[in-house]
Every structure is written in structure tokens, then in C-alpha cells.
Amino acid sequence: MTTITEDDVDQYLREHPQFLATWLLENADDDTLRVVARKFKQDALSQFTHQNGQAGKSMPAVEEKESTGSLSEDSMTIEPNEDRNLQTYRTFSKVGRNSITSMIFRKYLDGDRTRRSSVKKDLDDLKRMSEEELFMELIRDIASELDVNVLCHKILQNVSILTNSDRGSLFLVRGSRDNKYLVSKLFDVTESSTLEQSIHTEANEIIVPFGVGIAGNVALSREPINIKDVYADPRFNQEVDKKTGYRTHSILSMPIVNFEGEVIGVAQIINKISGNHEFSKQDEDLFRKYLTFCGIGITNAQLFEMSVNEFKRNQLLLHLARGMFEEQSNLEKLVQKIMLDAQDLLKCERCSVYLLDDSFQRDIMSYTSRFLNRLSSYSRTGNLVVAMQDPSNQFRQAGKGDNTSEPLRKVEDVHFSQAFELYAGKMKVLTPAEFQNSKAAFIAKITLVAAETLNIEDLTRYGGFVGHHVPEDNGFSAKSVLCMPIHNSDRTIIGVTQLINKVNGQPFDENDEHIIEAFSIFTGLGIHNCQMYENACQLMAKQSVALEVLSYHATASKEEAERIMVERIPASEDYKLYRYDFDDKLMSDDDTIKATIRMFLDANLISQFKVPYETMCRWVCTVKKNYRPVTYHNWRHAFNVCQTMFTMLYTGDLRPKFDAVEVFALMAACLCHDLDHRGTNNAFQVKVASPLAMLYSTSVLEHHHFDHCIMIINSEGNNIFQSFPPEEYRRAIKILEHAILSTDLALYFKKRGDFKSLVENGEREFLEENKKDLLKAMMMTACDVAAITKPWKIQKEIAQLVTAEFFEQGDIEKTQLGEKPIPMMDREKKDELPKMQVDFIDFICAPVYELFAKVSESLKPLNDGCQENRQHWKDMSNTMQLKTDVQKEDTHSAKSKFMEKSPKKTKPEVSLLNKTVKHTKPSQNPKTQR
């Protein structure tokens, strides 16, 4: 075996100086490193001044860098003529001062909690030490330990050595200032037990309230307790010995205090090994002295652990901030990201975010403004409490200076506009019905009324929930709840973040409150920015639509209206306006305008509501001008829809069911129901993300038609409702909106079932408002698709127009979007038009006309015309199908005959022939040779 001498080690270290530096950084204590660094500094300075002949002059580069507390990478560059000592000094200077702490800190962040080796615990060596030497040796063992768990384990092992005890346990203080308790950190630690064997996790830790048991009494009284016979002391719990089989004789329990004198833990040792198992006064003194240093060590370790955790939380919050500000275009995605981060940050079972509606936000902003104005009227020396006593403060808690027991702002007054929930990894957007009666939402409302954080440790003991669990619709039970108001950049409350049930089963603590407070700041900014972004996008979309409309359309000129005014308006009989088989094909555009005015004249609406005749003429001309020249959804379609409504009212005997305001609004709605139609449907607008789709989330085109209608009415010389009293004006606009939106077939399908139930149950009068609204909605759909009820010749021509417009949209989807359109819009499927028309009648048209035929016998012609046209389309479909079948049969027959007359081939040749006749060689076919 080779013996390594001191000279060998010296030579190796000289040849490998970096090894020495690394070893010292990892193993030496701070004092040793400071001594080494100081020595290198002195040698380097001495050598530098000697070489430059300038005694007393310092190294500018080194001193300047050192004065800033750090060295840059550039300062570490070593010139060839520089001394080795200077290089070594700079190496230490780079990592000097805070380097050890930084290195440990980085290790903790990286999860490296490798336990540093303890002092050698050879009892023979320790016994040869004096008491002072032994004491200092054990103090050095814990002096640089920053892991709380490892530190506590070392403390108990060292105490066992000092006091010659068999084992020990250590409890740390937890809880708030008013509700402190002890938790077992390590239990039954012996000299040979490992940290893993002794550590108590949150799952198996023992909780001891202050004043309960031996440890609890020590924590409360801050005095040591030395029990020589524990079985004679009622504070000792004998159940532990019964479970473990261990016999406890004596216990010495001592408080651990910090530098401020506060109890931060309790340590206790059990059964002195020597003698009669009793701990002496000398043991108490040694225990107390050692725990004085232990208190400092535990405090430092806890502070270090808090620093590490705080750094991690800050990193998470910065990550959260980056993520939130990256996602600004979609509120739902943003909230989902927020909740995922919150759940990960605080390890809770469920997370919810509730957003306030605008009205409540306005109330809060209004109060805030009043408070600030009121506060500004008082000097700094004035009474601040008086400034806060705003009589209009709706959020002031009652019971303080008044006789009421409720806050002036009631929980029932709080309304959420949106609610999001994250549970079991799944994000859910709650419906108003779901969060309106939710108990979790009720707690969120309480938080808003209090305008401060609400931390409920046990919901079964809180307020109105005493003795009850709080089940939700999914069976989830809430126990502990943490709620925090969300503020925007103006410090206005815009919602609530709610966390329910920590994963470890413990209630949310003060540390969690600090985290969620910082978290809510970022949350509020993120949500506020997202809402601002959405508002900006909507404003830009609205501006884009407005500019497009204004650039394309214009109000009808006064001269155009005057020209119509002076011309004769033919009678209704001349135009056949009361007939279901009305046809506008031979009418000029001026005739359609005159016919429209005639319908309003015959309905007695112009005279009854004192509408200026010029205004009426100009409005009709303007409406006509605001239809684009698309293939089908143009002015002619709108005119025909209005004529059908006129016919249903007066020929179909529905007029008595409505008053004059409703008739006026319904006829105006028919003329305006497709204003500024672009020849494409709602699905196309959404697919291409048009400005209209950004502006309206549902019934995209229908909302645009209504808004365009209002724009025309509000333009100069076009307000046909100008003579209406205010109440009737508002009612007319409401009917107008309801009627136009009802032309969305998606809404028609939702309402048709209710209408069918009413009619089949014998409803014919429709006197109640909701029933009348349903009737008006169905009438709008019946008028909108009334082309299907026209005589066959008219219907066939109109169907070709509709199909042509659909095909135009399909062509755009193919060429510009690269998508395959649905069959009804695919030009390649034009031969299937008859079959698609039959499906259209069966699915949309026939059901509504059958119901109207039951409502009034006078409406039966609509249903008859629809059924007749269905039969025509059915016949065409059958004929086309038969023609297709014959063509297929002829092709199959010709192929079979060809195969019969062909010479017998080998199997591969027959297979080739079945694929295509063109591939047959001339020599193989006699007919081809002839």
C-alpha cells in the first residue's frame, strides 16, 4: 500500500491550484475562506507594488472592482506577465463575500439538499474533550446548516450526546399570532436514527395546541419542564408508549426561543441512559445553553428557507406575468392560464374566477371617486375617519355607529357577468344559472362586499354554513376557502379569485394570503388588459364596418324622394299586393318603391302616425339604396318579404292580433331584415374572421342588419318614427330588433318547438306578450322563405337565384380559403339541387306553414303552395335519379357485353381490362383488328 506523504499532497496542490479552490469553497467555513482570501490579497498587492516600484499604490483595476462588491468577467482576464498570486486572488475575489451564500442558495433552488457531513460522533473522542470543547464542537456542527429539517435532526442528536439521553423530539410553532400550535417536526430521534426515519411530513405530523400536553405547556409558559416519572404526571399521554412498546421514564422539555424572545419551538429529550433515567440540573443548564444557539440556527434556517421560497414565488409570479401578457386576445384562455398557475402555486383542489358585471364596477368606481373628492377636502391634520364617513358609501360595514346589522351594500346586489372554474384539471365556463345559486359564488360575493381577503379555515363553522358541508352540483365539498378581490390598474375591483381546499388538507395560512395578494395584482392587470384589448378590437371592427358602409352606401337624395312624391301611387289591385301568388318580375324599381308606399298607405300607418310623406318616400328610397346588388339577398327579396307580411296580415286575417305600432314595426323590419347583405352567410363571416364577426358573437349578419336599419332611421330625413311618443318609439325599436334577429334560422329552430306546442294545444288568440312575440318571430321566418310557396314557375326561377348566390360563396371558399364547401354551396353538386330543395322544404319550410294553416284557414294557401312545389322538386329528383340509374346500368351492360365478346384472358390481363379498355392491345381484340 503506497503511503502519501505531506510533500506529495503539497506538490499535487501546487500543480492543481483550482482543485484547492474548489475544495475550499465546498468544505471550508466562512472564516477560513475570509482568511485565505485576505492572505492572497495581501500577497497580490505586495507583489504588484514591488514590480511597479510604487509602494503603497493599490491596484486600480482590482480595487475599483472590489469597491463595487463584484468583478466582471473582463476583470478576470490575466495578462501573461501578471503574478500567479494575483490570478489566484482574483479567482477568490470573483466568488468572494457573497459567493458561499449564493452557491448554497443556487443549490437549494436546484433542489440539491445534500446533507453536509456532521462532526465525528466518536463517543470516546467526545468524552476526552472538556465540556467547553464538546459544547463548541457541537455548535460548529449546526452553525452553517441552513436546511431546517437537517438542522433539527442534528440538534436532537447533539443534545443526546450532551445530556446522555436515549432519544428526543422537536416541535416547531405554526399558525397565526392569535392561533398558535405546535407540529412535530422530528419524533423519537436517536443517535443512530436517520433523518428519513424520524421526519414527520404533513401527512403524519402531530399537532399540539398551546397549553395542551407537556410540549404545549412548555410553549405556553416558556418554562422548561423536567419530569422524573412521566406516568405520575397527568399531562403525559401513555397511549404513545402502548402503541410503540417503548417505556418512557423521564422527560426534559425545553422551549426554543429566537433573538426576540418568542417561542419558535419546543425540544424534549427522553430517558437519561445512565443512572436512574432522571435528568439533573446540570442537564437542564446544558440543554438551555445549547438551545440558545439552536434558536439562532433555526431562525436563520427558516429565514433562508423563506428567502428560497420567496425567490421561487417571485420567479413563478414573473412567469405568470409573462404568460398573462402574452395572452391578450382571448379572455377565456387568459383566465384558464391564470387558474392553472394559481392552482399550481398554492396546491389547491379547485380554483374559480368570478368577474363582475359593468354596473357593479361602475358603483365601486363612483364610490371611489366620491371618497377621493371627500378626502381632498380635509387637511393632513384633520380627522381622517371623518373623511371616510361618506354617507353615500354603499360598501361601509354597518353596525359601527348606526343601528343596522347589515352592510348597506347587500350580497344580493352583487352580480357576476362571467364565472370560470378549474377542477380536476378541467376548465369550465359556468352558466348564469350555475353560478347564480352557487354557494361558492355566494362566498365570493361576501368577499366583494367586505372588499378584502376572506380566509375561511373551516366552512362548516363559518356564518350561515355552520354545521353544513357546502356541496356543489358535481358533489364537491368545500372545507377551507381563500378569496381575494381582483383589482385593475385603477384599483377598481373587477372580480374575485377563489381557491378551495388545499391538497394537503390544511387550511390556507397567512403565507398563502400574501401569495394570492401578489397573484391577484397580476391577475387584475392581465384581465383588465385583455378586456381593454377586446374593447379596442371591437372598436376597430366597428370603425372598419362603419367606414365600409359609408364608402359604399349613401342616403337617398332629397330630389329622388321628391320625384316619387309627385308621381301617382297605383292601387293595391294594380300590383296584386293582397295575393299570395304575387310576382314582381315585370315591375320596375320605381314600381317596387311605389308598391311599398302603397302597402303603408293601405295599412293606414302614414296618416295614423303622422309620418311626413316626404320622410316616408325618402326612407323607402334609402332602404332600397342600402341593399347591395348581390344575386338574391337584394332589394327585390326584401320587397317580396314585406309583401308577404302584408298579405299574411290582411289576407291571412292576422291583423286583428296586433296593434298599429306592431304592424308598422313588422313591415319596416321586413324591408330592412337583410340590409347590406354581402351574399355570404353567418358561418362564412365567422370563418374568415370578418370585422362583422368580431363585432357580433351571435347572429352576426342579423345584428348588422338591425344596426344598419337604426343608422338609416337616425340619418337626416329618414326617421319614420319621429312622431311617436317616447314610450311607443322605444317599443317600436324593440319590436324591430326582435323581428330582424328572428330571421336567423338558428333562432327559428330554437323557437319552433314552443310555437308548435302552443298551436297544437289550441292557441289561436296569442294575447299574452310572450306568445305574441313567438307568433311575430314565426311570421318573419314564414315571410323570409315565402318564395317556396309561390307558383312553380316563380319558385323555380327564385331557386336558381338562391343557388347561384350559394355557389358564389362556395367558389370563394374553394379558391381563396382552400376549403371544400358544403354540398348546397358546391357547384359540383348542382345536379342534386332538386333533392336539396326537398330537404329544405321538409326541414325548414313545411313545419311552419303547416302550423300557420292551423292558426288560420286564410293562411292555408301558403302551405298548399309549399306542398305543391315540394312535389315538383320531388318529381325532378326522382327523374334525375332514374336518369342516373339508367346511365349506370347502360355503362354496366356495355361493359358486360364487351367482356363476353372478348377472348378469354389470363387472370392478370382480365384485371387490366377491368381497369380500362384503352390499355387492351389491338392484337388481343378481333373487332379492333377488323
From TrEMBL:
InterPro entries under this entry?
GAF, GAF-like_dom_sf, HD/PDEase_dom, PDEase, PDEase_catalytic_dom, PDEase_catalytic_dom_sf, PDEase_CS
Is the keyword Isomerase assigned to this protein?
no
State the UniProt keywords alphabetically.
cGMP, Hydrolase, Metal-binding
PDEase domain ranges (all copies): 557-880
Which sites bind Zn(2+) 1? 637, 673-674, 784
Keyword Metal-binding tagged:
yes
Q: Enumerate the GO terms in the molecular function aspect.
A: 3',5'-cyclic-nucleotide phosphodiesterase activity; metal ion binding
**Can you say what this protein is called?**
Phosphodiesterase
Where does this protein come from, organism-wise?
A: Biomphalaria glabrata
Q: What taxonomic lineage is listed for the species of origin? A: Eukaryota, Metazoa, Spiralia, Lophotrochozoa, Mollusca
